[in-house]
Design brief:
- With 317 residues, the chain is of the alpha/beta class.
- It has 13 helices and 11 strands.
- Strands 1, 2, 3, 4, 5, 6, 7, 8, 9, 10 and 11 form an 11-stranded mixed β-sheet that branches.
- The longest helix has 25 residues, at 291-315.
- It is globular.
- 50% of the residues are buried.
Length: 317
C-alpha cells in the first residue's frame, strides 16, 4: 500500500526543510515499512540518561518487527525524519532542545533552532515525508473546564487535516475524554479500538468511554487504511487506540485519587494554558512514586510494537 506522497526531501546537501536518515531513505526507496516516532518523550518526558536508553529501545522494537524507525526532530533549522546515533544522542542530551508543536516548525526552521517534536509536529512532518504510520503515547485533546478556558490541544485540528495512522493509548487521562471523542467525531477523525470496545485512558486500560469500531489484528487496520485510500476525500488521521495491558496500567484508584489532588493543586496555584499539562503530569509522576511514568512507558512500547506490525501489514498489501 503506498504511503503519503512525499514532499521534496534532501539527504544532507542543499537547502531543504527535510532530511531523511539513510535508513529511512533506503526503506522508502525499496517500499519497506517505516514507523514515525516523536522525540518529545526523549527530550522532555524522561530523565537522563534513561531517555536515551528508551529512545534506542523503541527504535529497536520497530526494527525487530521488520520496519524502519523514523524518530522525528528539528536540528539546526532542518527537520530530520529519522536520526542517526549521534543525532539521537543530541536530542537526548542537549538541555537547550526546545519543544516544538506544528505551529513552531516554521520559526524553528527559519531561525536555525533545534527542538523535539510533539504529536502535531511529528504527524505533520512524517506525513510530508511520505510515512503512513506514527506511534506515540497519548494524544492531546480537549481540556477539562473547556467551556471556561477554551483550551484544546493543537493535536486535534492537525490530525483533522493529516492523512496518517496514529497508534496511541488514547488521550492523556488528565483531559476531558468524552469531550475529546466528541471533538474527534466532529473533525471527522476515525477511531478504532484495537482489541477493545472501550477507548483507552492512557495510564489506564479503559477510560470508560466506548468506541464505535473494534479491530483485532494489524491486518484489519491495514484494510481500513486501504479502504480510506480507495474512498478518497479529505485527508484525516486514523487513530488506532491501543490500551496499555491491565497488568501494567496505573492502579485506577490511585490514578483517580492523585489526579483529583493534581487538579485541585492546579486550580489553587492558578496554573493555566500550556503550563497545565506538564504540571499535572509531573504531579502524577511525583505522587505515584514514578508508577505513572512506568505505565506511560508500557503504553508507548505496546504502541510502537503495534505500529510496526501495522506498517508491515500495510506494506504487504
Amino acid at each position: 500500500m503506498p504511503q503519503n506522497p512525499p514532499a521534496p526531501l534532501s539527504q544532507e546537501t542543499g537547502r531543504s526543510a527535510f532530511v531523511l536518515s539513510e535508513e529511512v531513505r533506503e526503506a522508502l526507496d525499496e517500499g519497506r515499512p517505516v514507523v514515525a516516532l516523536e522525540s518529545t518523550i526523549i527530550a522532555h518526558g524522561l530523565p537522563r540518561p534513561r531517555n536515551l536508553q528508551v529512545a534506542r529501545e523503541l527504535e529497536d522494537l520497530v526494527r525487530t518487527a521488520g520496519a524502519a524507525p523514523a524518530t522525528v526532530a528539528v536540528l539546526d533549522g532542518r527537520a530530520h525524519v529519522g536520526l542517526d546515533g549521534t543525532r539521537l544522542e543530541r536530542i537526548a542530551g542537549d538541555p537547550g532542545v526546545r519543544k516544538l508543536g506544528h505551529r513552531d516548525l516554521a520559526p524553528a526552521l527559519a531561525l536555525g533552532a533545534s527542538g523535539a517534536t510533539t504529536v502535531s509536529a511529528t504527524a505533520f512532518l512524517a506525513a510530508r515525508a511520505g510515512l503512513g504510520v506514527f506511534a506515540t503515547g497519548g494524544l492531546g485533546g480537549v481540556h477539562r473546564e473547556w467551556t471556561q478556558t477554551q483550551d484544546e490541544s493543537a493535536d486535534l485540528r492537525l490530525l483533522a487535516g493529516t492523512g496518517i495512522t496514529v497508534v496511541c493509548a488514547g488521550v492523556k487521562s488528565i483531559l476531558d475524554v468524552p469531550a475529546t471523542l466528541q471533538r474527534l467525531e466532529t473533525l471527522g477523525v476515525g477511531v478504532l479500538g484495537f482489541g477493545t470496545e472501550h477507548f483507552p485512558g492512557f495510564y489506564l486500560s479503559s477510560s470508560g468511554e466506548r468506541v464505535d469500531w473494534t479491530v483485532g489484528t494489524p491486518e484489519d487496520v491495514a484494510e481500513v487504511m486501504r479502504a480510506r485510500e480507495l474512498l478518497g476525500g479529505p485527508p484525516t488521521a486514523l487513530i488506532v487506540a491501543n490500551p496499555v495491558p491491565e497488568a501494567e496500567q496505573l492502579d485506577p484508584a490511585t490514578h483517580d485519587r492523585v489526579l483529583a489532588g493534581a487538579l485541585e493543586a492546579c486550580r489553587r496555584r492558578g496554573i493555566t494554558g500550556q503550563a497545565v499539562t506538564p504540571f499535572l503530569l509531573e504531579y502524577l509522576m511525583r505522587e505515584t512514586g514514578g508508577a505513572s511514568l512506568e505505565a506511560n512507558l508500557a503504553a508507548v512500547r505496546g504502541n510502537v510494537r503495534l505500529a510496526a506490525r501495522i506498517a508491515v501489514a500495510a506494506a504487504a498489501r
